[in-house]
Each structure stands twice: as structure tokens, then as C-alpha cells.
Specification:
Blueprint (H helix, E strand, L loop, with lengths): L18 H4 L12 H23 L5 H8 L3 H4 L1 H20 L5 H20 L4 H22 L3 H4 L5 H9 L1 H20 L1 H22 L13 H8 L1 H21 L2 H7 L5 H23 L3 H21 L3 H15 L2 H12 L4 H29 L4 H23 L9
């Protein structure tokens, strides 16, 4: 990936040209856009992430009314969350490869348009089958958009600002939890669940307009072939470690977080009426954690994050009391907020000439881990107790910390380089 030079700056010498440009003699270097245009484009991509994550999680607060209206059980209605996650895991590499040599600006616009149409279909769906089909489209859009968007920061702003720009793009993930999902739930309570989906279609249209107006043309720097994906896993230790860390951290997170409400009530003894407010505080802490982690070394950050979460989740399971529960929940949000941006930075650093391929593998692992974590947490809660969910999550976070430590300390010269 290359970043445009600032207007008026001297052209880089061949020695210092980015690898992607140096390796492709057919490419030409155009003068960079005004700085504000690059940041405006970053904001448009962040809005896209916010729109997609909110669309994915919107049914969480609307399961009961949707199930009642469409005559399905709450468990069946829960497929509206499970299905997009699994589809996103599958489509992240498929869309990345399928995008071929198409302009990434066009690809992102098509994916947002697809999400807009899916939300509109859900808003007017006559039955649950149609809603579920629309949710499949949301998952396909999410997987492809996330995989492509993850490596765009360095193409939109100067390289020295890439960390902050990546943090801004991935700020859409926790912001969707803090603002998007609660707002959608409130709208569903006021105007019905169909109004919530219609509102998401409107937000999708606004996002599409922002991408069309603010994103510059983004021709692909290289074509990703299917064979490259398994080859990247086989030959790049950094990518392998990143996939493993992604799966362990996210599985541990969702094994615990999916059941945070019963943990807060049964272990911490918090009044159910206060849980929603505390979760809002968790989300705000997550946004702060995202930006704190954005410009820092990814491996060191993930080591601190995974080790901290191992401790916090173990304490959540063992320490009673509302004060302790509140403090631990906020610490949990702050630590986990840095996960998405740090994982993306890890993969980009590990495979600087194959960022889209590496990102697609990370996104696939991330979304598969969401479904796996929720499943394991449910088995733990049903088979043992509510406190078993954060304990299981703590164990997985500890494994993640060991994986990060091994990748960073034992083989620092090999992480991110081919065999």
C-alpha cells in the first residue's frame, strides 16, 4: 500500500519509495490530495463500519418484538444475529478475492448499497424467512467491507497518521454498540421494529452518498487470488499468529460478554434497572480504549489487553458487589476497546504487501469467533453457572496472551516475514 505525498513535498527517491510502488513499474505517483480530503474519506469509511456493525447488531434489542410479530420463538429470532456473523466470516475472503482489479471505492459503495437494500427489505418483510434472507446480505456486506476497509488508512492519509486513521475507521465498531444499537432499540420501542430497520436503510443511503462524494478512486494495488490465502497462512508466521490471537481473544470476549447481564445480576448483585446504563458506560470506555490503542505498537498492546482481560474476567466471576462489578465492567470496556484496531495493525504489519488478504483472514476469524464464543458461553452458563462464562473467557484470554508473548519474544525476527 502506498500513501500519497503531501502537496509540494519532494518526490521520494527510489530507495525510500514504498514497496508496493517500487515493485510495480506500471504505477505512477500522483500528487496527494489536500489533507482534509484524506481525513474526510477516512470519516466516510468509519461511517460505513458504523452503519454495518449497527445493522448486524440491531436485532439484539428487538428480538422479542420481531419474534412476536412474525410468530417465531426468541431462539429462532436469534438467528438474525448468528447468521450475519457466520456469513461475514465466509464472505470476507470471498469478496476480497472476487473484487479482483475493481476500484475499491466502487466495491465499498456496492456493499453499502447492498446493506441499504437489505435493511429496506427487512423493514417491509412479510415473514421471518424474508428477514433472514436480508440478514444474509448484511453479513456478506459486512465481511467484504471490513476486509477491504481495514487496510485503506495508509492510502488515504500520510503514513505517519495511518495509526490514528485506522483507529478512527475502527472507532465505528464500539461506537455502534454505544450509540447505534441503543438508538435503534429506542426507535423500535417508539415506532416499531420495522421503523428501526427503515432508519438503518436511511443511514445506509447517507453513508453511500458520503462514500461517493468523499472517497477518491482506489485502484487495487494488487490482485488477490484464492491460492494466496492458504499460502499466506502457511508461509507467514505473523499472519498465523494474528489469526490465532484474533480467534482466542474474540472467542473469550463473546463467551463472557454475551452473558454479561446475568453475570452483573447474579455475581455482582447489580439491580437489573441499572444494567443498561452500565453497558453504556462499558461502550464509552470501549471507544476511549480504541483511540488509546490506535497509534501504539499492536503486539505490545494486545499483550497488555489480553493479559488485563484475563485478570478482569476472572475477577468478574469471583468478586461480588455492585461497586466491584461496575469498576471491573468499565475496565473490561477500556481494555477490549483496543482489540479491533490492534488486530488490524498486527495483520497489516505482518503482511504489508498483502493487506487485503491478511485483513480478510482476520475478519473471517473474528466473525467465526463471535459465533463460537456465544456458543461456548451458553454451554458454560447452562451447564455450570453464570460465573463460568467469564471464567472461560479469562482462560482463553490467558492463552491469547501466551500466543502474543511467544510471537513477540521468541521469534521477533520471524513474525510478519515469510518462512
Amino acid at each position: 500500500m502506498t500513501s500519497a505525498a503531501a502537496p509540494g513535498s519532494p518526490a521520494p527517491s527510489p530507495r525510500h519509495r514504498p514497496a508496493a510502488a517500487a515493485d510495480d513499474p506500471g504505477r505512477t505517483t500522483a500528487p496527494g490530495p489536500a489533507p482534509w480530503k484524506g481525513w474526510a474519506a477516512v470519516c466516510a469509511v468509519a461511517l460505513g463500519i458504523f452503519c454495518l456493525i449497527t445493522s448486524e447488531l440491531l436485532p439484539v434489542g428487538l428480538l422479542t418484538p420481531i419474534g412476536a410479530a412474525l410468530h417465531v420463538s426468541d431462539g429462532t429470532a436469534g438467528l438474525m444475529v448468528t447468521v450475519p456473523g457466520l456469513v461475514a466470516a465466509l464472505c470476507a475472503p470471498l469478496v476480497t478475492v472476487g473484487a479482483g482489479r475493481r476500484d475499491r471505492r466502487l466495491v465499498l459503495c456496492v456493499l453499502i448499497a447492498l446493506t441499504t437494500a437489505a435493511n429496506l427489505v427487512a423493514a417491509f418483510a412479510p415473514g421471518f424467512t424474508v428477514v433472514l434472507a436480508a440478514r444474509v446480505l448484511v453479513g456478506a456486506s459486512l465481511g467484504g467491507f471490513w476486509a477491504i476497509a481495514g487496510g485503506l488508512a495508509v492510502r488515504l492519509v500520510p503514513e505517519r497518521h495511518a495509526g490514528r486513521a485506522t483507529a478512527l475507521i475502527f472507532g465505528g465498531v464500539p461506537t455502534a454498540s454505544v450509540l447505534g444499537v441503543p438508538a435503534g432499540t429506542l426507535l423500535g420501542e417508539l415506532g416499531g421494529w420495522r421503523a428501526a430497520f427503515a432508519a438503518m436503510a436511511v443511514l445506509g443511503a447517507v453513508t453511500l452518498a458520503a462514500l461517493i462524494l468523499l472517497l477518491p478512486p482506489l485502484p487495487p494495488t494488487r490482485h488477490v487470488a484464492f491460492a494466496e490465502l492458504p499460502a499466506l497462512v502457511r508461509e507467514n508466521r505473523g499472519v498465523r499468529a494474528g489469526i490465532a490471537v484474533t480467534f482466542l481473544v474474540v472467542t473469550g470476549q463473546f463467551a463472557a460478554y454475551t452473558f454479561v447481564r446475568p453475570v452483573l445480576q447474579d455475581v455482582s448483585g447489580i439491580d437489573p434497572a441499572h444494567v443498561s446504563t452500565l453497558l453504556l458506560g462499558y461502550g464509552v470506555a470501549g471507544v476511549a480504549g480504541n483511540f488509546l490503542a490506535g497509534a501504539r505498537d499492536a503486539r505490545r498492546t494486545l499483550l497488555v489487553v489480553s493479559a488485563s482481560l484475563a485478570v478482569v474476567l476472572a475477577l468478574m466471576a469471583a468478586v461480588p458487589g455492585a461497586v466491584a462489578g461496575t469498576a471491573l465492567l468499565l475496565a473490561w470496556g477500556l481494555a477490549y476497546g483496543g482489540v479491533s484496531v490492534s488486530l488490524q495493525s498486527w495483520m497489516t504489519t505482518s503482511a504489508p504487501r498483502a493487506t487485503e488478504a491478511a485483513s480478510s483472514l482476520m475478519v473471517a476469524s473474528f466473525n467465526l469467533a463471535i459465533a463460537t464464543g456465544a456458543l461456548l458461553g451458553g454451554l458454560a452458563v447452562d451447564g455450570i453457572s453464570a460465573s463460568a462464562a467469564p471464567l472461560g473467557g479469562s482462560a482463553l484470554m490467558l492463552l491469547a496472551a501466551v500466543t502474543v508473548l511467544t510471537a513477540t519474544v521468541r521469534r521477533p525476527d520471524e513474525v510478519g516475514t515469510p518462512k
